Amino acid sequence: MLILKDHTEGISDISVSPSNESLIYSACFDHTLCQYDINSIKRTITFEGHKKGVWCCDHHPNDNIIVSGSNDSTVKLWDISSENNIENITIHKNAIYDVQFSKDGNLFGSCSKELICIWDMRNRSNPLDKIENESKSKDDFIYCLNFIDNDKSIITGYMDGTILIAKINDNNPDSKITID
């Protein structure tokens, strides 16, 4: 068993490098996203820039970018080799609960209480697709997402127990399947 106690606050998410399983990334309530080498049991990079706790992270399949989402309502893309923040996305109004890259790495998604956004990695100025939370309950929010169907659809989970499956870039309401 290996125990690495380095953060001063809770860890909310972990991502593993697709090319080197000894490199892990932790999203933490202390406002940081950190890289650790579990072979040397050391923190090797600290990505700083979020103003509040980092709730989620995901690693790009080609191993050069990591995305993070925070309680400060921002999504940040980080270049791992330069350790620089390369993109700040501020379209959400609430905390980001999940971020995920598509399997091929061409897309990534972010979700918050009110909104799911799908982004094209080649053009991140505007979302490729947006799905707004249509629930009227203040406690019903979008909590997680993932890509399915060869990255043509997403599946999301809501705090009220709903699963939503939707085709990407299809504004037809009939293309959304809700499972209660």
Question: What characteristics describe this protein?
Answer:
four-stranded antiparallel β-sheet, 180 residues, 16 strands, mainly beta
Number of helices, counting only DSSP H or I runs of 4 residues or more: 0
Low-confidence stretches: none
Distance between the termini: 40 Å
Helix coverage percent: under 10%
The value of Rg in angstroms is 16 Å
The structural class is mainly beta
Apparent shape? globular
Order of helices and strands: EEEEEEEEEEEEEEEE
- Mean pLDDT across every amino acid position: 90
In total, how many beta strands?
16
Strand order of the largest sheet: 1-2-3-4
> What portion of residues belong to β-strands?
over 45%
User: Main sheet, how many strands, which sense, barrel?
Assistant: 4 strands, antiparallel
What does this 3D model show about the protein?
Strands 1-2-3-4 form a four-stranded antiparallel β-sheet, with no helix packed on it. A four-stranded antiparallel β-sheet has the order 5-6-7-8, with no helix packed on it. With 180 residues, it is mainly beta. It is built from no helices and 16 strands. The model has no long low-confidence stretch (mean pLDDT 90).
Brief sketch in words of this structure:
0% of the residues lie in helices and 51% in strands. It has 180 residues and is mainly beta. A hairpin with a 4-residue loop joins strand 7 and strand 8.
